[in-house]
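To: structure desk
From: M.T.
Subject: fold request, one chain
Message: Could you run this one when you get a chance? Sequence is below, nothing fancy, just the single chain.
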Amino acid sequence: MNSIRLAAIASLLPSMLAAQSPATPPPAYGVMFTFERFADLFGDRLVSAFDSIPASRYDYRPTPVQQSIGYIAQHLEGANYALCDRFSDAKHPRTAKDSLADTIKAKWPKDTLVARLRASLRFCDTALERAGLLQSPVLANNLLLFETDLAEHYSQLSTYMRMLGMVPPSALPPIKRSAIDLPASLLSPYIGVYRVAPGLDLYVTMQNGQLFIRSTGGATVRLWPESRTDFFVNEVNAQLTFTRDATGTVTGLVWHQFGRDRAALKVQSPTRP
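Reply: Done. Structure tokens follow.
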């Protein structure tokens, strides 16, 4: 578990989205945002792993006493609903299929299992967004149970994949992207401050005709253009798209990472001399 947590932290910190100013707003929000990012990270890896495993191997288990891949998928779905039900007033309505025996659900088709797992993760996203600030030990405990469960099952599934001769998603090399050259005149409108959430801003600056980005309290990294509006960073597998209104004015950006799109509103443009 320690290695999993360290890997998760290492992949989150360079993304500029996990950093939080220690002064404002209350640190509780920064902690909640970090929990959301960890859920994005492991949820994306789990879905990618299940997607990449052939349907014919969903009955695979290393030993007779261990869970099969199909069993892990249906177990995760149920665990997600059970744990995320505790975060807020969002509740998952149970159906007759939810009450079937685990051994029966484990034999459902791959597409069914993956679709239901995705739905449970979307429910957890909603529950996390509605949970409010981290202001109680009970909420902290439930969040840790949820995040730890995702991490432990990703570790389990990664081991299975290795034994099947497959490479887990977290061990795959970064997607190679090609940057293009854009003149400073096209980049300068993007300079400014973008608000992801209260107290968590992204600062886009330009040096020597190149764009850079950092978050509140985070490190500065370069933005590499793929098009006039789409950019990527080399440090992690993350991209962003700048948005404009009908007049062509830059109004915000959308950050793409871990299978999620997070919008940030442009709240400040550079001061003109």
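Reply (cont.): Confidence is low (pLDDT under 50) at residues 1-26. Let me know if you need anything else for the meeting.
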